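Session log. Operator J.P. requested a structure for one protein chain; no other inputs attached. Running the standard single-chain path with token output.
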Amino acid sequence: MADTALVLGGGGAVGGAWAVGMLAGLAEAGLDLSRADVIIGTSAGALIGTRIASGVPIEELYAENRAGERTVDVTVTLRQTAAFLRAALGSRDPERSVRRLGRAALASRTVPEAAVFDAIATLLGGEVPRWPERDLRLTAVDARTGELKAFDAGSGITLREALAASCAVPVVWPPLSIAGSRWMDGGSRSTSNVHLARGHRRVVAIAPIPKAVGPHPNAHEQGAALEREGSLVAVLSPDRTARKAFGRNMLDQTRGPGAARAGRVQAAACAQAVAAVWQD
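Structure written below.
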């Protein structure tokens, strides 16, 4: 069994800021999760994972989030929200649910695909780096079939493409045309994809939104399944104070600095549980 895996879930600008705060707080407590053997990122977690794997210090990421830097304006209308919920909640079957969401995403009139790539570049501060030498896996879902894919350096696509696909929120951003398919947000059927850490002995998952909308397993259930297979697992999700800091709109970038601080504070309460998993 391989050793350590860091799983970073999706959660928009606000949840991503909280996750960075958690990483910073844990590092302050002597638990540097950025050194994981594999980093698995979904949506906002894909952006964070990419920057960590590319060598950006966690404290630098935290400072950016506390200052509200590197943001893009994403507006979600009531009509888009209704279309998303109607599709995701239209079936109790997980496979049908994700395919319904994919059809809704493909049919929606949104921004051009180029705008998504531009947004990714902005969030990364300009030029998108190449795939790092680290084991980095970024998730996306095929909008036509509902299949989950974890892209990596050997997948034959650029890091820019993998990031854009992982962040393509259904109905809000278009599914991205990559490698002969149309790809939407990696959190469309699981917001964290903790199950992809199967085979690793020590797993820490930071899940800003533990469960996707619809009939899908949550991050804690996926973590429990890994534990039954022999892994040591810690799944971290927002506490009450953090959820209050989030507000109701996970894309509200004005909430990012407060969410980052809430994550760093919460990390102190999680450090012992993480140490039990991460340290020998």
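Operator note: The first strand starts at residue 2 and ends at 8.
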